[in-house]
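Obj.: predict assembly geometry.
Materials: sequence records (below).
Method: joint structure prediction, all chains together.
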Amino acid sequence: AQKITQTQPGMFVQEKEAVTLDCTYDTSDQSYGLFWYKQPSSGEMIFLIYQGSYDEQNATEGRYSLNFQKARKSANLVISASQLGDSAMYFCAMGSMDSSYKLIFGSGTRLLVRP
Amino acid sequence: NAGVTQTPKFQVLKTGQSMTLQCAQDMNHEYMSWYRQDPGMGLRLIHYSVGAGITDQGEVPNGYNVSRSTTEDFPLRLLSAAPSQTSVYFCASSLDRDEQYFGPGTRLTVT
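Observations (raw structure tokens):
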């Protein structure tokens, strides 16, 4: 069975600083994908970044990067130069490579950016 | 493109009532899924579909039915609502193995 663990229920970061949100996973699949989603207070789910298990390079999307350490089964999200608009819930999720429409989500981390 | 649309946005039901949550997408995506999000938790998969006429159960399917008669629509039916089904329901669609596009959600309260 697959499992996602996010151990930080809440975090603070100062505006313009970088922050790392932790995510560890467990799976017996050889091929899988890891996702990060942002959920602002308005409630919608916003896709941020994706990492495939066979991707050799860490994924990056603008200010978001995914620190993928396969041996440690971790997929931490790094947000650089935090902005006030980054305050939100952040969810890590995973799916098998051949069925990433069936995602398993972690419990989320609430990030608050301080001015 | 409207993306993934869900109706209604809010709904209050009494215990035992039935209703259908609507989900539609205009991106010609093969894959569609329904999730529920309870307070303080991540999303959990209820049912999913890999194409018209093909559906399967996810992690928490009890009390829900789905069907997929067209590529565009994937309704979720609550057969006999219970207070434990009070939640926010998200529909999602995807074309391939990466990004899922989520609808805005339906907030359901069962009294």
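Conclusions so far: The two ends of chain B are 36 Å apart (CA to CA).
To do: check interface contacts against the pulldown list.
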